[in-house]
Amino acid sequence: MIPIAKPQLDDAEIKAVTDVLRSGIIAEGQHVAEFEQAFAEYTGTEHAVAVNSGTAALHAALLAHGIGKNDEVITSSFSFVATANSILFTGAKPIFADIKADTFNLDPRFIEDKITSATKAIMPVHLYGHPADMETITDIAEDHGLILIEDACQAHGATFKGKRVGSFGTGAFSFYPTKNMTTSEGGIITTNDEKIAEKARMIRAHGSKQRYLHEMLGYNLRMTNISAAIGLVQLKKLPNYTSKRQHNAKLLTEKLSNIAGIQCPIVKENCRHSFHQYTIRTQNRDELSEYLKNKEIGTGIYYPIPIHRQPYYKELGYNDSLLITEKASREVLSLPVHPGVTDEDITTISNAIADWGGPKC
After folding, report:
1. Rounded distance, CA 132 to CA 100, Å?
2. What is the CATH number of the domain that holds 187?
3. What is the pTM of this model?
């Protein structure tokens, strides 16, 4: 089986974990601080605040900016549900704008139409590892005095005009095992604003800067030394992981681009795609997915139901008409692209799709 995702772990991660276990300091400690500093340097930001999941990173980032009841946050419905759930956690309301058909990211043309007097922030998602149009989105945020929070949970290493995602506004990353790097479970907030970083640190630790002195309502969102030790090793490997993902994506595109009925992902000018997913489009997506499964090739559908069409969101009264989002959800199919995929695997995948011979789009 060629799996759709596979964390890349070896003796270096095992040694890092056992060293922490032998130290006896397994909760938040020096390893977390070192990981925060290293990740801030990697993203080109002044601060990084490690937490226990990507969802927690999004949630804490929103709270650190004071977003709450009666506020609106414009974001994408074509994402994992955590993107919108994190907004609901604060008491604010997600407002969904449609996406670009080629990158699957928020289309700036639709953002301004969604801005009201209640709008507090824009949360673009760098979906699949392709940066959103940060130049235009940043301009919109500045013109309207809005906070910019980047959902970079799938975009470690991606850049827009040479600048890493997560450094345009306040960023949130995930280190779930299927991501471009992992800490097992974990997340991190990146920012150049010292006050936002300080507030995020308080939010993750029960609202305290000093032990047993609680100045605000907070949560237990802390990362452990065990997770941070894995993260320190993985971060050193991330550049090579990213290069391998890009290599695999390039080979896949070369082999699939002339197959009828298959639309390959694109990389926009001035963008560096980190290829968390290699996502094609085809009208007979479900049939191709089943066909590849029978050929022992793993696939993923990210995402078959947009957030605004999820049962809970329908209960909340969401009934948006997002035609580009909804069409994408019927056609997207992700193929294995992770660093464990070999050139031989790429040939196997592309030959199988060529033999399938789906209908012309």
Report:
1. 9
2. 3.40.640.10
3. 0.96
